[in-house]
């Protein structure tokens, strides 16, 4: 695995050697960040179910000013910390790691931290947590009003178009995986 772009472009990262961790491939990450462009530049990023940290580290490389990683699996957490130590310079960025369950930490993050401009949701596929996490985020102040959520999900899994105050605005299929893009529902109340 390697960082596909930005100031750490080409940097090799450690990948999992154990069962259960499924990092986002280089090709998929590159496609994702080409879609996102500069939407999160100088923004805050939350990497849920971070695993080895490839999505959040890619965001750091491409201009995020702060990234928070959440990973409870001890093996994934060890890889994440090793990969963060490989970064040559993180002086101008804020990096946090929460070694806890995503569903338990989101209410605390909502209370204690500023909202995030970009949130990645990439749980283990067998856990089937996408709906629960999106529903919880929709009730909390975790996402900035103009923020975006990216969900990595098996392409055959179906989520409703709307969950709480969030709606899917785009979906891209790459082989057996889909990237879904979620935002707050635009209710048209801005005078249109």
From TrEMBL:
Keyword 4Fe-4S carried by entry: no
Entry GO MF terms: 16S rRNA (guanine(966)-N(2))-methyltransferase activity; nucleic acid binding
Keywords, sorted A to Z: Methyltransferase, Transferase
EC number: 2.1.1.171
Pfam families attached to this UniProt entry: Cons_hypoth95
Stored PANTHER family: METHYLTRANSFERASE (PTHR43542:SF1)
Name used for this protein in its record: 16S rRNA (Guanine(966)-N(2))-methyltransferase RsmD
Species of the source: Capillibacterium thermochitinicola
């Amino acid at each position: 695995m390697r960082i596909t772009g930005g100031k750490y472009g080409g940097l090799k990262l450690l990948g999992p050697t154990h069962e259960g961790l499924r990092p986002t491939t280089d090709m998929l990450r590159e496609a994702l960040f080409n879609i996102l462009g500069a939407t999160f530049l100088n923004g805050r990023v939350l990497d849920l179910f971070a695993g080895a940290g490839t999505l959040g580290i890619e965001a750091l490389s491409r201009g995020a000013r702060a990234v928070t990683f959440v990973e409870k699996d001890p093996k994934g957490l060890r890889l994440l910390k090793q990969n963060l130590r490989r970064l040559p310079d993180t002086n101008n960025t804020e990096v946090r790691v929460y070694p806890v369950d995503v569903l338990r930490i989101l209410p605390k993050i909502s209370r204690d931290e500023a909202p995030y401009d970009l949130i990645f949701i990439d749980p283990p596929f067998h856990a089937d947590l996408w709906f629960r996490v999106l529903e919880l985020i929709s009730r909390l102040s975790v996402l900035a009003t103009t923020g975006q959520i990216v969900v990595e999900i098996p392409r055959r899994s179906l989520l409703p178009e709307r969950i709480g105050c969030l709606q899917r605005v785009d979906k891209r299929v790459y082989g057996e995986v889909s990237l879904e893009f979620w935002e707050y529902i635009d209710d048209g109340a801005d005078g249109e």
